Protein backbone atom coordinates (compact mmCIF):
# COMPACT_ATOMS: atom_id res chain seq x y z
CA UNK A 1 0.00 0.00 0.00
CA UNK A 2 1.30 3.44 -0.95
CA UNK A 3 2.28 5.94 1.73
CA UNK A 4 -0.45 8.63 1.66
CA UNK A 5 0.31 11.95 0.00
CA UNK A 6 0.01 14.58 2.73
CA UNK A 7 2.06 17.47 1.37
CA UNK A 8 0.71 20.95 2.01
CA UNK A 9 2.33 23.03 -0.74
CA UNK A 10 1.60 26.31 1.04
CA UNK A 11 3.44 25.17 4.19
CA UNK A 12 6.30 23.27 2.55
CA UNK A 13 9.61 25.20 2.29
CA UNK A 14 10.20 26.61 -1.19
CA UNK A 15 13.11 25.70 -3.39
CA UNK A 16 15.15 28.79 -4.31
CA UNK A 17 14.80 29.73 -7.97
CA UNK A 18 18.34 30.72 -8.88
CA UNK A 19 17.87 31.69 -12.54
CA UNK A 20 15.75 31.06 -15.61
CA UNK A 21 16.36 30.86 -19.33
CA UNK A 22 13.39 31.79 -21.46
CA UNK A 23 10.81 34.35 -22.39
CA UNK A 24 7.02 33.94 -22.65
CA UNK A 25 6.84 35.13 -26.23
CA UNK A 26 3.23 34.05 -26.74
CA UNK A 27 1.93 36.66 -24.27
CA UNK A 28 0.97 39.87 -26.08
CA UNK A 29 2.81 42.85 -24.55
CA UNK A 30 4.39 40.46 -22.06
CA UNK A 31 7.71 42.34 -21.88
CA UNK A 32 8.28 45.87 -20.55
CA UNK A 33 11.24 48.10 -19.82
CA UNK A 34 10.90 49.18 -16.21
CA UNK A 35 10.64 52.99 -15.77
CA UNK A 36 14.05 52.96 -14.06
CA UNK A 37 15.51 52.12 -17.48
CA UNK A 38 17.78 49.44 -16.03
CA UNK A 39 15.59 46.33 -15.94
CA UNK A 40 13.39 44.23 -18.20
CA UNK A 41 10.21 42.72 -16.77
CA UNK A 42 8.73 39.81 -18.71
CA UNK A 43 6.63 36.69 -18.32
CA UNK A 44 7.80 33.09 -18.24
CA UNK A 45 5.29 30.43 -17.31
CA UNK A 46 3.58 31.33 -14.06
CA UNK A 47 6.23 33.79 -12.89
CA UNK A 48 7.47 37.25 -13.77
CA UNK A 49 11.17 37.69 -14.40
CA UNK A 50 13.10 40.88 -13.57
CA UNK A 51 16.41 40.98 -15.43
CA UNK A 52 19.00 43.72 -15.49
CA UNK A 53 19.54 45.02 -19.02
CA UNK A 54 22.93 43.81 -20.25
CA UNK A 55 23.08 40.89 -17.81
CA UNK A 56 22.04 37.58 -19.44
CA UNK A 57 21.41 35.96 -16.07
CA UNK A 58 18.06 36.64 -14.43
CA UNK A 59 17.96 36.23 -10.66
CA UNK A 60 14.90 38.19 -9.51
CA UNK A 61 11.41 36.69 -9.78
CA UNK A 62 7.86 37.52 -8.81
CA UNK A 63 5.94 34.39 -7.84
CA UNK A 64 2.29 34.14 -6.90
CA UNK A 65 0.34 32.67 -9.81
CA UNK A 66 -0.85 29.09 -10.08
CA UNK A 67 -1.04 29.05 -13.89
CA UNK A 68 0.27 30.83 -16.98
CA UNK A 69 0.58 34.63 -16.75
CA UNK A 70 -1.47 36.17 -19.56
CA UNK A 71 -0.97 39.95 -19.15
CA UNK A 72 1.35 42.40 -17.38
CA UNK A 73 1.15 46.09 -16.51
CA UNK A 74 3.66 48.39 -14.78
CA UNK A 75 2.58 51.56 -12.99
CA UNK A 76 3.94 54.89 -14.37
CA UNK A 77 6.40 55.32 -11.48
CA UNK A 78 7.40 51.66 -11.56
CA UNK A 79 6.42 51.08 -7.93
CA UNK A 80 3.80 48.46 -8.78
CA UNK A 81 3.64 45.53 -11.19
CA UNK A 82 0.31 43.83 -11.88
CA UNK A 83 -0.14 40.51 -13.67
CA UNK A 84 -3.17 38.44 -14.59
CA UNK A 85 -3.33 34.74 -15.27
CA UNK A 86 -5.38 32.21 -17.16
CA UNK A 87 -6.79 29.11 -15.48
CA UNK A 88 -9.11 26.17 -16.07
CA UNK A 89 -12.72 26.45 -17.17
CA UNK A 90 -15.02 27.16 -14.23
CA UNK A 91 -12.29 28.57 -11.97
CA UNK A 92 -11.47 32.15 -11.10
CA UNK A 93 -8.31 33.78 -12.45
CA UNK A 94 -6.14 35.81 -10.07
CA UNK A 95 -4.63 39.25 -10.48
CA UNK A 96 -1.43 39.70 -8.48
CA UNK A 97 -0.10 43.16 -7.59
CA UNK A 98 3.55 43.28 -6.50
CA UNK A 99 5.55 46.06 -4.89
CA UNK A 100 8.59 46.39 -7.16
CA UNK A 101 11.36 47.31 -4.72
CA UNK A 102 10.49 44.75 -2.04
CA UNK A 103 9.26 42.24 -4.67
CA UNK A 104 6.44 41.26 -2.34
CA UNK A 105 2.90 40.35 -3.27
CA UNK A 106 0.70 43.06 -1.76
CA UNK A 107 -2.70 42.24 -3.29
CA UNK A 108 -4.33 39.15 -4.77
CA UNK A 109 -7.49 40.18 -6.61
CA UNK A 110 -10.02 37.53 -7.59
CA UNK A 111 -13.18 38.28 -9.55
CA UNK A 112 -12.65 37.32 -13.19
CA UNK A 113 -13.43 33.86 -14.51
CA UNK A 114 -10.98 31.67 -16.45
CA UNK A 115 -8.80 34.49 -17.84
CA UNK A 116 -7.62 38.04 -17.21
CA UNK A 117 -7.40 39.64 -20.65
CA UNK A 118 -5.84 43.04 -19.89
CA UNK A 119 -4.63 45.38 -17.12
CA UNK A 120 -3.98 49.13 -16.86
CA UNK A 121 -2.87 51.51 -14.09
CA UNK A 122 -4.20 55.04 -13.72
CA UNK A 123 -1.61 57.82 -14.05
CA UNK A 124 -1.68 58.58 -10.30
CA UNK A 125 -1.60 54.86 -9.40
CA UNK A 126 -4.83 55.08 -7.39
CA UNK A 127 -6.70 52.60 -9.56
CA UNK A 128 -6.10 49.42 -11.52
CA UNK A 129 -8.52 48.44 -14.29
CA UNK A 130 -8.87 44.84 -15.45
CA UNK A 131 -10.63 43.11 -18.33
CA UNK A 132 -11.92 39.57 -18.16
CA UNK A 133 -11.51 37.07 -20.98
CA UNK A 134 -14.07 35.54 -23.30
CA UNK A 135 -15.86 33.62 -20.55
CA UNK A 136 -16.08 36.67 -18.31
CA UNK A 137 -15.92 39.86 -20.42
CA UNK A 138 -16.30 42.24 -17.48
CA UNK A 139 -14.51 45.48 -16.69
CA UNK A 140 -13.50 45.99 -13.05
CA UNK A 141 -11.83 49.03 -11.48
CA UNK A 142 -9.83 48.26 -8.33
CA UNK A 143 -8.86 50.64 -5.53
CA UNK A 144 -5.10 50.19 -5.00
CA UNK A 145 -5.23 51.63 -1.49
CA UNK A 146 -7.31 48.69 -0.29
CA UNK A 147 -7.05 46.07 -3.02
CA UNK A 148 -10.85 45.96 -3.22
CA UNK A 149 -13.06 46.42 -6.31
CA UNK A 150 -14.42 49.94 -6.70
CA UNK A 151 -16.89 49.40 -9.54
CA UNK A 152 -17.41 47.25 -12.60
CA UNK A 153 -19.77 45.86 -15.17
CA UNK A 154 -20.02 44.12 -18.56
CA UNK A 155 -17.32 45.47 -20.91
CA UNK A 156 -19.40 45.06 -24.09
CA UNK A 157 -21.78 42.73 -25.87
CA UNK A 158 -18.80 41.10 -27.61
CA UNK A 159 -15.32 40.24 -26.39
CA UNK A 160 -13.04 43.06 -25.25
CA UNK A 161 -9.31 42.64 -25.78
CA UNK A 162 -7.44 45.80 -24.69
CA UNK A 163 -7.65 48.58 -22.12
CA UNK A 164 -5.87 51.84 -21.29
CA UNK A 165 -6.30 54.71 -18.81
CA UNK A 166 -6.05 58.35 -19.88
CA UNK A 167 -2.68 59.94 -19.09
CA UNK A 168 -4.01 62.94 -17.15
CA UNK A 169 -7.39 61.83 -15.80
CA UNK A 170 -7.83 58.85 -13.48
CA UNK A 171 -11.61 58.77 -14.07
CA UNK A 172 -11.46 57.94 -17.78
CA UNK A 173 -10.32 54.89 -19.69
CA UNK A 174 -10.79 53.19 -23.07
CA UNK A 175 -11.54 49.58 -23.92
CA UNK A 176 -11.55 47.94 -27.33
CA UNK A 177 -12.41 44.59 -28.80
CA UNK A 178 -14.46 42.89 -31.49
CA UNK A 179 -16.08 45.67 -33.48
CA UNK A 180 -16.40 48.05 -30.53
CA UNK A 181 -14.44 50.87 -28.91
CA UNK A 182 -15.66 52.51 -25.71
CA UNK A 183 -14.69 55.44 -23.52
CA UNK A 184 -15.58 54.92 -19.86
CA UNK A 185 -16.20 57.49 -17.12
CA UNK A 186 -15.64 56.30 -13.54
CA UNK A 187 -18.09 57.69 -10.96
CA UNK A 188 -16.11 57.17 -7.76
CA UNK A 189 -18.81 58.61 -5.45
CA UNK A 190 -21.60 56.36 -6.71
CA UNK A 191 -19.23 53.46 -7.53
CA UNK A 192 -20.39 53.16 -11.13
CA UNK A 193 -18.87 53.27 -14.61
CA UNK A 194 -20.58 54.79 -17.65
CA UNK A 195 -19.66 53.83 -21.23
CA UNK A 196 -19.78 55.96 -24.38
CA UNK A 197 -19.27 54.26 -27.74
CA UNK A 198 -16.73 55.81 -30.11
CA UNK A 199 -18.21 56.72 -33.50
CA UNK A 200 -16.37 54.71 -36.14
CA UNK A 201 -18.84 55.10 -39.02
CA UNK A 202 -18.42 52.36 -41.62
CA UNK A 203 -15.11 51.21 -40.17
CA UNK A 204 -15.37 47.84 -38.42
CA UNK A 205 -12.26 46.44 -36.76
CA UNK A 206 -11.05 44.08 -34.05
CA UNK A 207 -9.09 46.33 -31.70
CA UNK A 208 -5.91 44.71 -30.33
CA UNK A 209 -3.93 47.59 -28.77
CA UNK A 210 -4.66 51.09 -27.43
CA UNK A 211 -2.21 54.00 -27.16
CA UNK A 212 -3.25 57.41 -25.82
CA UNK A 213 -0.88 60.29 -26.55
CA UNK A 214 0.33 62.40 -23.64
CA UNK A 215 -2.23 65.22 -23.90
CA UNK A 216 -5.20 62.80 -24.05
CA UNK A 217 -6.43 64.38 -27.30
CA UNK A 218 -5.82 61.40 -29.56
CA UNK A 219 -5.82 57.64 -29.25
CA UNK A 220 -4.19 55.19 -31.66
CA UNK A 221 -5.89 51.82 -31.97
CA UNK A 222 -4.03 48.83 -33.42
CA UNK A 223 -6.25 46.37 -35.26
CA UNK A 224 -6.16 42.77 -36.41
CA UNK A 225 -6.37 43.91 -40.06
CA UNK A 226 -2.95 45.54 -39.81
CA UNK A 227 -3.82 49.23 -39.70
CA UNK A 228 -3.93 51.90 -36.98
CA UNK A 229 -7.07 53.94 -36.27
CA UNK A 230 -6.58 57.49 -35.00
CA UNK A 231 -9.39 58.64 -32.69
CA UNK A 232 -9.93 62.21 -31.52
CA UNK A 233 -11.07 62.29 -27.90
CA UNK A 234 -13.62 65.05 -27.22
CA UNK A 235 -14.23 66.03 -23.60
CA UNK A 236 -17.68 67.46 -22.80
CA UNK A 237 -19.69 68.25 -19.71
CA UNK A 238 -21.50 64.95 -20.12
CA UNK A 239 -18.25 62.98 -20.30
CA UNK A 240 -15.90 62.05 -23.12
CA UNK A 241 -16.53 60.65 -26.55
CA UNK A 242 -14.40 59.87 -29.56
CA UNK A 243 -14.62 60.35 -33.32
CA UNK A 244 -12.68 58.72 -36.11
CA UNK A 245 -9.98 60.94 -37.67
CA UNK A 246 -8.01 58.73 -40.08
CA UNK A 247 -6.40 55.31 -40.51
CA UNK A 248 -2.99 54.16 -41.70
CA UNK A 249 -0.50 53.09 -42.88
CA UNK A 250 -1.58 52.69 -46.49
CA UNK A 251 0.10 49.28 -46.73
CA UNK A 252 -1.31 47.28 -43.86
CA UNK A 253 0.95 45.30 -41.56
CA UNK A 254 1.01 41.57 -42.27
CA UNK A 255 -1.10 39.43 -39.89
CA UNK A 256 -2.30 42.46 -37.94
CA UNK A 257 -1.01 44.64 -35.12
CA UNK A 258 -0.14 42.60 -32.02
CA UNK A 259 1.60 45.19 -29.82
CA UNK A 260 2.42 48.88 -29.80
CA UNK A 261 4.19 51.55 -27.76
CA UNK A 262 4.75 55.30 -27.82
CA UNK A 263 8.33 56.52 -28.09
CA UNK A 264 9.62 59.49 -26.09
CA UNK A 265 9.16 61.84 -29.06
CA UNK A 266 5.56 60.72 -29.63
CA UNK A 267 6.12 58.35 -32.55
CA UNK A 268 4.32 55.01 -32.65
CA UNK A 269 6.25 51.73 -32.55
CA UNK A 270 4.16 48.73 -33.60
CA UNK A 271 4.82 45.02 -33.96
CA UNK A 272 2.88 42.71 -36.25
CA UNK A 273 2.09 39.02 -36.43
CA UNK A 274 4.16 38.85 -39.62
CA UNK A 275 7.37 39.79 -37.81
CA UNK A 276 7.44 43.46 -38.81
CA UNK A 277 8.50 46.24 -36.44
CA UNK A 278 7.49 49.64 -37.82
CA UNK A 279 7.91 53.20 -36.61
CA UNK A 280 4.93 55.38 -37.61
CA UNK A 281 4.41 59.12 -37.71
CA UNK A 282 1.61 60.27 -35.34
CA UNK A 283 0.46 62.96 -37.82
CA UNK A 284 -0.43 60.72 -40.78
CA UNK A 285 0.56 57.18 -39.66
CA UNK A 286 3.10 56.83 -42.47
CA UNK A 287 5.89 54.28 -41.99
CA UNK A 288 9.14 56.05 -41.09
CA UNK A 289 11.29 52.95 -40.49
CA UNK A 290 10.65 49.24 -40.66
CA UNK A 291 12.46 45.98 -40.03
CA UNK A 292 11.51 42.30 -40.12
CA UNK A 293 12.42 39.83 -37.36
CA UNK A 294 12.13 36.09 -36.86
CA UNK A 295 8.68 35.16 -35.56
CA UNK A 296 5.58 37.18 -34.77
CA UNK A 297 6.38 40.33 -32.78
CA UNK A 298 4.41 40.11 -29.52
CA UNK A 299 6.10 42.79 -27.36
CA UNK A 300 7.60 46.22 -28.00
CA UNK A 301 8.89 48.50 -25.25
CA UNK A 302 10.66 51.86 -25.41
CA UNK A 303 12.97 53.83 -23.13
CA UNK A 304 14.70 56.78 -24.75
CA UNK A 305 16.59 55.60 -27.83
CA UNK A 306 16.43 52.00 -26.70
CA UNK A 307 13.75 49.64 -28.00
CA UNK A 308 13.35 46.04 -26.87
CA UNK A 309 11.38 43.66 -29.06
CA UNK A 310 10.04 40.21 -28.12
CA UNK A 311 8.80 37.56 -30.55
CA UNK A 312 6.82 34.35 -30.22
CA UNK A 313 10.01 32.42 -31.03
CA UNK A 314 11.20 33.44 -27.54
CA UNK A 315 13.77 35.84 -28.99
CA UNK A 316 14.44 39.24 -27.41
CA UNK A 317 16.02 41.86 -29.68
CA UNK A 318 17.55 45.22 -28.93
CA UNK A 319 16.75 47.91 -31.51
CA UNK A 320 18.63 51.19 -31.69
CA UNK A 321 16.24 54.06 -32.46
CA UNK A 322 18.69 55.87 -34.72
CA UNK A 323 20.05 53.04 -36.86
CA UNK A 324 17.02 50.72 -36.50
CA UNK A 325 19.39 47.74 -36.56
CA UNK A 326 18.46 44.68 -34.52
CA UNK A 327 20.71 42.83 -32.09
CA UNK A 328 19.70 39.48 -30.61
CA UNK A 329 20.00 39.76 -26.82
CA UNK A 330 18.24 36.66 -25.54
CA UNK A 331 16.96 33.40 -26.96
CA UNK A 332 15.48 30.12 -25.76
CA UNK A 333 13.21 27.28 -26.81
CA UNK A 334 9.70 28.38 -27.67
CA UNK A 335 8.03 24.95 -27.55
CA UNK A 336 8.03 21.92 -25.29
CA UNK A 337 11.46 20.75 -24.11
CA UNK A 338 11.66 16.96 -24.09
CA UNK A 339 14.97 16.19 -22.43
CA UNK A 340 17.96 17.61 -20.59
CA UNK A 341 21.40 16.17 -19.81
CA UNK A 342 24.74 17.12 -18.26
CA UNK A 343 28.17 15.95 -19.42
CA UNK A 344 29.72 13.36 -17.12
CA UNK A 345 31.15 15.10 -14.04
CA UNK A 346 30.65 18.62 -15.41
CA UNK A 347 28.03 20.97 -13.91
CA UNK A 348 28.90 24.07 -15.94
CA UNK A 349 27.19 22.90 -19.14
CA UNK A 350 23.97 21.18 -20.06
CA UNK A 351 22.07 20.31 -23.23
CA UNK A 352 18.35 20.52 -23.96
CA UNK A 353 16.29 18.82 -26.67
CA UNK A 354 13.17 20.34 -28.20
CA UNK A 355 11.25 20.64 -31.42
CA UNK A 356 13.66 21.26 -34.32
CA UNK A 357 16.82 21.66 -32.27
CA UNK A 358 19.34 20.79 -29.57
CA UNK A 359 20.92 23.62 -27.59
CA UNK A 360 23.93 23.61 -25.29
CA UNK A 361 23.96 26.14 -22.46
CA UNK A 362 26.43 27.72 -20.07
CA UNK A 363 24.88 27.00 -16.68
CA UNK A 364 26.60 29.86 -14.84
CA UNK A 365 25.87 32.63 -17.37
CA UNK A 366 22.61 31.15 -18.74
CA UNK A 367 23.66 31.84 -22.34
CA UNK A 368 23.38 29.63 -25.40
CA UNK A 369 26.72 28.23 -26.58
CA UNK A 370 25.63 26.04 -29.48
CA UNK A 371 22.48 25.33 -31.45
CA UNK A 372 22.00 22.24 -33.62
CA UNK A 373 18.92 22.51 -35.83
CA UNK A 374 17.08 19.89 -37.86
CA UNK A 375 14.14 21.27 -39.83
CA UNK A 376 10.72 19.63 -39.38
CA UNK A 377 12.01 17.09 -36.85
CA UNK A 378 11.59 16.81 -33.10
CA UNK A 379 14.43 15.76 -30.82
CA UNK A 380 12.99 13.39 -28.19
CA UNK A 381 16.08 12.58 -26.13
CA UNK A 382 19.71 13.61 -25.79
CA UNK A 383 22.81 12.31 -23.97
CA UNK A 384 26.52 13.08 -23.74
CA UNK A 385 29.01 10.25 -24.16
CA UNK A 386 31.07 9.64 -21.03
CA UNK A 387 34.24 11.05 -22.64
CA UNK A 388 32.29 14.18 -23.68
CA UNK A 389 33.30 13.87 -27.34
CA UNK A 390 29.79 13.49 -28.73
CA UNK A 391 26.19 14.54 -28.14
CA UNK A 392 23.95 11.61 -29.04
CA UNK A 393 20.31 12.33 -29.81
CA UNK A 394 17.12 10.47 -30.75
CA UNK A 395 14.72 12.00 -33.26
CA UNK A 396 11.11 11.68 -34.36
CA UNK A 397 12.15 10.27 -37.76
CA UNK A 398 13.51 7.13 -36.06
CA UNK A 399 17.19 8.08 -36.49
CA UNK A 400 19.97 8.45 -33.95
CA UNK A 401 22.32 11.35 -34.67
CA UNK A 402 25.61 12.19 -32.98
CA UNK A 403 27.12 15.68 -33.06
CA UNK A 404 30.34 17.30 -31.90
CA UNK A 405 29.65 19.23 -28.66
CA UNK A 406 31.91 22.15 -29.65
CA UNK A 407 31.17 22.59 -33.34
CA UNK A 408 27.79 20.91 -33.78
CA UNK A 409 29.26 18.91 -36.66
CA UNK A 410 27.34 15.76 -37.56
CA UNK A 411 29.53 12.79 -36.59
CA UNK A 412 27.30 9.90 -37.64
CA UNK A 413 23.70 8.87 -38.25
CA UNK A 414 22.08 5.54 -37.44
CA UNK A 415 19.27 5.21 -39.96
CA UNK A 416 16.07 3.37 -39.08
CA UNK A 417 17.17 2.89 -35.48
CA UNK A 418 13.48 2.53 -34.61
CA UNK A 419 10.39 2.22 -36.76
CA UNK A 420 8.01 5.10 -37.24
CA UNK A 421 5.55 3.33 -39.53
CA UNK A 422 3.69 0.07 -39.54
CA UNK A 423 3.10 0.00 -35.79
CA UNK A 424 0.27 0.83 -33.47
CA UNK A 425 0.96 3.81 -31.22
CA UNK A 426 -0.32 2.86 -27.81
CA UNK A 427 0.34 6.05 -25.85
CA UNK A 428 2.42 9.17 -25.66
CA UNK A 429 3.02 11.99 -28.07
CA UNK A 430 6.54 11.02 -29.17
CA UNK A 431 7.50 8.91 -32.19
CA UNK A 432 10.77 7.40 -33.37
CA UNK A 433 13.61 7.17 -30.84
CA UNK A 434 12.25 7.99 -27.39
CA UNK A 435 15.02 6.96 -24.95
CA UNK A 436 18.83 6.89 -25.04
CA UNK A 437 21.61 5.79 -22.72
CA UNK A 438 25.38 5.60 -23.29
CA UNK A 439 27.56 3.03 -21.52
CA UNK A 440 30.52 3.98 -19.34
CA UNK A 441 33.20 2.78 -21.77
CA UNK A 442 31.94 4.75 -24.81
CA UNK A 443 31.55 1.49 -26.71
CA UNK A 444 27.83 0.85 -26.69
CA UNK A 445 24.67 2.85 -27.05
CA UNK A 446 21.26 1.75 -25.77
CA UNK A 447 18.09 3.05 -27.39
CA UNK A 448 14.36 2.64 -26.91
CA UNK A 449 11.60 3.64 -29.28
CA UNK A 450 7.92 4.12 -29.82
CA UNK A 451 8.03 0.75 -31.62
CA UNK A 452 8.61 -0.86 -28.14
CA UNK A 453 12.09 -2.25 -28.99
CA UNK A 454 15.18 -1.88 -26.82
CA UNK A 455 18.31 -2.01 -28.96
CA UNK A 456 22.03 -2.16 -28.23
CA UNK A 457 24.45 -0.54 -30.68
CA UNK A 458 28.21 -0.97 -30.90
CA UNK A 459 29.56 2.47 -31.75
CA UNK A 460 32.86 3.86 -32.92
CA UNK A 461 33.80 6.96 -34.93
CA UNK A 462 33.78 4.91 -38.13
CA UNK A 463 31.00 2.36 -37.64
CA UNK A 464 27.71 1.90 -35.80
CA UNK A 465 26.40 -1.64 -35.67
CA UNK A 466 23.36 -3.10 -33.93
CA UNK A 467 24.40 -5.89 -31.58
CA UNK A 468 20.97 -6.99 -30.40
CA UNK A 469 17.31 -6.01 -30.56
CA UNK A 470 15.22 -6.98 -27.55
CA UNK A 471 11.46 -7.21 -27.93
CA UNK A 472 9.56 -7.67 -24.68
CA UNK A 473 7.76 -4.36 -24.23
CA UNK A 474 4.40 -3.78 -25.88
CA UNK A 475 4.42 0.04 -25.95
CA UNK A 476 6.67 3.10 -26.07
CA UNK A 477 9.94 2.83 -24.12
CA UNK A 478 10.24 6.06 -22.10
CA UNK A 479 13.45 5.62 -20.13
CA UNK A 480 16.63 3.52 -20.04
CA UNK A 481 19.27 3.47 -17.30
CA UNK A 482 22.50 1.41 -17.32
CA UNK A 483 24.57 0.05 -14.43
CA UNK A 484 28.09 1.27 -13.78
CA UNK A 485 29.47 -2.16 -14.74
CA UNK A 486 27.73 -1.95 -18.15
CA UNK A 487 26.41 -5.51 -17.76
CA UNK A 488 22.81 -4.63 -16.93
CA UNK A 489 20.19 -1.99 -17.70
CA UNK A 490 16.58 -1.24 -16.87
CA UNK A 491 13.92 0.10 -19.26
CA UNK A 492 10.56 1.69 -18.45
CA UNK A 493 7.60 1.50 -20.81
CA UNK A 494 4.01 2.63 -21.26
CA UNK A 495 2.93 -1.02 -21.19
CA UNK A 496 3.09 -1.05 -17.37
CA UNK A 497 6.38 -2.92 -17.10
CA UNK A 498 9.99 -2.16 -16.25
CA UNK A 499 12.41 -4.79 -17.51
CA UNK A 500 15.90 -5.47 -16.19
CA UNK A 501 18.09 -6.67 -19.08
CA UNK A 502 21.24 -8.78 -18.85
CA UNK A 503 23.48 -7.13 -21.45
CA UNK A 504 25.97 -10.02 -21.52
CA UNK A 505 23.38 -12.64 -22.42
CA UNK A 506 21.12 -10.07 -24.14
CA UNK A 507 17.97 -11.32 -22.46
CA UNK A 508 15.56 -10.38 -19.71
CA UNK A 509 16.76 -10.95 -16.17
CA UNK A 510 13.75 -9.61 -14.30
CA UNK A 511 10.55 -7.68 -14.73
CA UNK A 512 8.46 -5.30 -12.62
CA UNK A 513 4.74 -4.79 -13.23
CA UNK A 514 2.34 -2.06 -12.13
CA UNK A 515 -0.97 -0.58 -13.26
CA UNK A 516 0.67 2.49 -14.75
CA UNK A 517 2.46 3.96 -17.73
CA UNK A 518 6.06 3.97 -16.47
CA UNK A 519 7.63 7.33 -17.39
CA UNK A 520 11.03 7.26 -15.68
CA UNK A 521 13.39 4.88 -13.92
CA UNK A 522 16.82 5.14 -12.31
CA UNK A 523 19.29 3.08 -10.30
CA UNK A 524 20.22 4.19 -6.80
CA UNK A 525 23.94 5.21 -6.71
CA UNK A 526 24.99 1.92 -5.07
CA UNK A 527 22.73 0.08 -7.59
CA UNK A 528 20.96 -1.92 -4.90
CA UNK A 529 17.58 -0.35 -5.65
CA UNK A 530 15.62 0.97 -8.60
CA UNK A 531 13.27 3.97 -8.45
CA UNK A 532 10.32 4.26 -10.86
CA UNK A 533 7.41 6.62 -11.43
CA UNK A 534 4.58 7.07 -13.90
CA UNK A 535 1.00 7.93 -14.64
CA UNK A 536 -0.38 6.41 -11.42
CA UNK A 537 1.19 9.35 -9.53
CA UNK A 538 3.28 6.96 -7.41
CA UNK A 539 7.01 6.66 -6.75
CA UNK A 540 8.07 3.05 -6.18
CA UNK A 541 11.29 1.64 -4.69
CA UNK A 542 12.28 -1.78 -6.12
CA UNK A 543 14.91 -4.29 -5.07
CA UNK A 544 17.34 -4.33 -8.02
CA UNK A 545 18.16 -8.04 -7.63
CA UNK A 546 14.75 -9.52 -6.80
CA UNK A 547 12.73 -6.97 -8.86
CA UNK A 548 10.22 -6.79 -6.02
CA UNK A 549 8.57 -3.65 -4.65
CA UNK A 550 10.02 -2.39 -1.38
CA UNK A 551 8.09 0.82 -0.86
CA UNK A 552 5.49 2.93 -2.61
CA UNK A 553 4.89 6.66 -2.16
CA UNK A 554 2.03 8.84 -3.31
CA UNK A 555 3.93 11.40 -5.38
CA UNK A 556 1.12 13.71 -6.47
CA UNK A 557 -2.59 14.33 -6.09
CA UNK A 558 -3.57 15.90 -9.38
CA UNK A 559 -1.37 14.72 -12.24
CA UNK A 560 0.99 12.06 -13.53
CA UNK A 561 4.70 12.22 -12.75
CA UNK A 562 6.89 12.51 -15.84
CA UNK A 563 10.40 12.58 -14.45
CA UNK A 564 12.60 11.69 -11.52
CA UNK A 565 16.29 11.94 -10.72
CA UNK A 566 18.42 10.85 -7.75
CA UNK A 567 21.12 13.12 -6.33
CA UNK A 568 24.73 11.95 -6.78
CA UNK A 569 25.07 11.22 -3.04
CA UNK A 570 21.76 9.32 -2.94
CA UNK A 571 20.29 11.40 -0.12
CA UNK A 572 17.57 13.06 -2.20
CA UNK A 573 15.52 12.57 -5.32
CA UNK A 574 13.33 14.94 -7.34
CA UNK A 575 10.05 14.47 -9.18
CA UNK A 576 8.02 16.64 -11.52
CA UNK A 577 4.97 16.25 -13.69
CA UNK A 578 1.53 17.48 -14.59
CA UNK A 579 0.97 19.23 -11.24
CA UNK A 580 3.59 21.85 -12.36
CA UNK A 581 5.46 21.46 -9.07
CA UNK A 582 9.05 20.32 -8.67
CA UNK A 583 9.48 18.31 -5.45
CA UNK A 584 12.67 17.47 -3.56
CA UNK A 585 12.30 14.27 -1.52
CA UNK A 586 14.36 12.70 1.22
CA UNK A 587 15.23 9.27 -0.18
CA UNK A 588 15.29 7.38 3.14
CA UNK A 589 12.39 9.16 4.84
CA UNK A 590 10.20 9.30 1.72
CA UNK A 591 8.93 12.81 2.46
CA UNK A 592 8.90 16.08 0.54
CA UNK A 593 11.52 18.53 1.81
CA UNK A 594 11.06 21.46 -0.59
CA UNK A 595 8.93 22.38 -3.59
CA UNK A 596 9.73 24.54 -6.59
CA UNK A 597 6.95 26.73 -8.05
CA UNK A 598 7.26 28.54 -11.37
CA UNK A 599 6.30 26.19 -14.19
CA UNK A 600 2.98 26.84 -15.92
CA UNK A 601 2.70 23.48 -17.68
CA UNK A 602 3.87 19.89 -17.46
CA UNK A 603 7.38 19.42 -16.12
CA UNK A 604 8.85 17.07 -18.70
CA UNK A 605 12.35 16.60 -17.30
CA UNK A 606 14.37 17.51 -14.21
CA UNK A 607 18.00 16.70 -13.46
CA UNK A 608 20.52 17.15 -10.66
CA UNK A 609 23.79 18.73 -11.73
CA UNK A 610 26.74 16.34 -11.20
CA UNK A 611 27.89 18.41 -8.20
CA UNK A 612 24.47 17.99 -6.59
CA UNK A 613 24.17 21.73 -5.89
CA UNK A 614 21.78 22.69 -8.70
CA UNK A 615 18.60 21.28 -10.21
CA UNK A 616 17.56 22.08 -13.78
CA UNK A 617 13.94 21.54 -14.82
CA UNK A 618 12.21 22.03 -18.18
CA UNK A 619 8.63 21.84 -19.33
CA UNK A 620 5.91 22.51 -21.85
CA UNK A 621 6.29 26.31 -21.75
CA UNK A 622 9.82 26.11 -23.20
CA UNK A 623 11.51 27.68 -20.19
CA UNK A 624 14.57 26.36 -18.37
CA UNK A 625 14.48 26.77 -14.58
CA UNK A 626 17.64 26.52 -12.46
CA UNK A 627 17.11 25.87 -8.75
CA UNK A 628 19.64 26.17 -5.94
CA UNK A 629 19.68 23.52 -3.25
CA UNK A 630 20.19 24.72 0.31
CA UNK A 631 21.21 21.45 1.95
CA UNK A 632 21.52 23.08 5.38
CA UNK A 633 17.75 23.68 5.41
CA UNK A 634 16.71 20.36 3.89
CA UNK A 635 15.01 18.81 6.90
CA UNK A 636 11.98 16.59 7.11
CA UNK A 637 8.76 18.51 7.93
CA UNK A 638 6.67 17.71 10.96
CA UNK A 639 3.85 16.19 8.91
CA UNK A 640 6.10 13.62 7.18
CA UNK A 641 4.93 10.03 7.32
Structure description:
- With 641 residues, the chain is mostly beta strands.
- Helix content is 0%, strand content 54%.
- The chain has no helices and 54 strands.
- It has a 6-stranded antiparallel beta sheet, with no helix packed on it. A 4-stranded antiparallel beta sheet has the order 1-54-53-52, with no helix packed on it.
- Strand 8 and strand 9 form a beta hairpin.
- The chain starts with 15 loop residues before the first strand and ends in a 13-residue tail after the last strand.
Question: Could you give a short description of this structure?
Answer:
The chain is an all-beta fold.
Structural category is mainly beta
- Low-pLDDT regions: none
Give the overall average pLDDT. Answer: 91
Profile the largest sheet: 6 strands, antiparallel
Tell me how many strands there are.
Answer: 54
- Helix percent reads under 10%
Strand content: over 45%
Which quaternary structure do these chains form?
Answer: single chain
Radius of gyration from the alpha-carbon trace, in angstroms: 27 Å
First-last Cα distance: 13 Å
